[in-house]
Amino acid sequence: MHTAISPSALTSLSTLMQRPTHHLNNVAINGTTQHSWPQFQAHVFSLSQQLALTKQQRFAICCKDSYIFAVAFMAVIHANKKLILPSNHQPAALAELSPHFDVLLHDTDTQIPASLVTINLSPLIHQHQALTSKAVFPTLILADIELTLFTSGSSGTPKAIIKTLDLLDNEIAQLEAIWGQQLQHNHICSTVSHQHIYGLLFRVLWPLCCGRSFDCFNLDYPEQVQAQASTSNILISSPALLKRLNNSVTSTPYNAIFSSGGPLPFAAAQHCQQFLGALPFEVFGSTETGGIGYRQQQQSTTPWLRFDVVKIAVNVEQCLKIRSPFVDPNQWYQTCDHCLLIDDHYFELKGRTDRIIKIEEKRISLTEIERRLCQLAWIDEAAVLPLERQQRLQIAAVITLTAQGTEQLERVGKGQFWLLLRQQLRQWIEPIAIPRRFRPIAAIPLNSQGKRLMRDLENLFNDHN
Question: InterPro entries annotated for this entry (predicted)?
Fold first, then answer.
């Protein structure tokens, strides 16, 4: 039960922690546990004081609980420390990112490599329940505060994206200008992680700045999404989950649904409206760009509408470029998204032109998968490619084997060998990015310019083996 209280006016991140403690909704809810605004201020102040006393400067946050994450986020910036958000929770991936941070802040549910310096925040949150009179927060200069996020780069290694908090503040203001009136009394439910830019903004920072409560934990299954449906709830989700909705059960409607991370199929958008009572607002953007535009698919040809504050154009290769206060209001930023401009406001997306693909809304670097395969003693060379099978995208790998790899393949057989390969890759790569199919060959086919013959590679998977 979420009590409807008149919402606060939009508050900037710079003065968020100075907001009065009365007449506010709860910050976050976990079942019957409710975290109030005074508790949030107390937790942020206590942790910021603790962090300010440490010599370390770079703090990474990796939490499952969105409330603990929000406390850590605000505490780090008020302690005048550098803030890092790993996007991959896999232990080996966290260890690989360790040169970027000094301390990892986490909660009890996160698996942490033993080699890292860490602080478990779960006990701290349960210790400090009352607001202390000493909780005084200064006004932050957001342009001086940097946030480092990570996304898949064309080199195959995680790419650090540095954004100042004034850019996020600008985007929050735009989101509230478009949807604030519709969402004013609502509670936020989410299926997406706050460790990525979309979840960070939509499920944590935007609600905080507007006095809306949010769920502590993800809704992981379609049944949970349908069970939580209410006209006083907002769903922050992704095409991956919305495509899996149980169409045999009609639920109570959500007030609004947001989807981002990739294009939502038209049929899924229509089913979502039928069974959850709302046609999703799809938001297009990236970690680098922030939000660019949005749409509701009334038809399969519905174009994207740019955000009011974002200017759009295309280069000679018809790739979208933007001038945006979420990146740099004075410079054009070039994307790799092939685009058709309808006019100054509307555009159609035609696909990406680099080696980053999306499967179930996760950005996946084909180059990184190749690099990880070639790190294994069994693999000499690898060519990774996306395959369309039964209207689903899957990853396949063509590999050449070392002598050790050939010996292992002959000893255990193909089925067991592929299982061992996938097992090795799991220490680096999220399950969705691990190749589903492999083909061992003598040499990767190349043309006269030394470029891979993609059609020949694809043809290797035309059989049913």
Answer: AMP-bd_C_sf (IPR045851), AMP-dep_synth/lig_dom (IPR000873), ANL_N_sf (IPR042099)
The CATH class, in words, for 356-459 is: alpha beta
Which residue ranges make up each domain of the chain?
A: 1-164, 219-354, 356-459
Per CATH, is 1-164 categorized as 3.40.50.620? no
pLDDT tens figures, 409-441: 999 999 999 999 999 999 889 899 999 999 999
> What would the two tokens of residue 277 be?
């009572």
List, for residues 213-255, the tens digit of each pLDDT value: 999 999 988 889 989 999 999 999 988 888 878 665 667 899 9
Fold match between 1-164 and 219-354?
yes
Tell me the one-letter amino acid at 11.
T
Give the model confidence (pLDDT) of 314-328 as tens digits.
998 899 999 999 999
Q: How many of the other CB atoms lie within 10 Å of CB of 428?
A: 20
Taking the C-alpha atoms of residue 109 and residue 125, their distance in angstroms, rounded to an integer, is: 14
**What's the CA gap between 21 and 36, in Å, rounded?**
9
Number of alpha helices (DSSP H) and beta strands (DSSP E) in the chain: 14, 24
d(CA 131, CA 129): 7
What does the pLDDT read at residue 154? 47
- Name beta bridge partners: 236: 190, 258
pLDDT band at 202 (very low <50, low <70, confident <90, very high): very high
Local structure of residue 16 (DSSP, 8 states): G
**pTM of the model as a whole:** 0.81
Pick from 45, 46, 25: nearest CA to 36: 25
Return the closest-CA partner of residue 29 out of 228, 184, 198, 167. 228
CATH number for the 219-354 domain, one of 3.20.20.70, 3.90.1200.10, 3.40.1280.10, 3.40.50.12780?
Answer: 3.40.50.12780
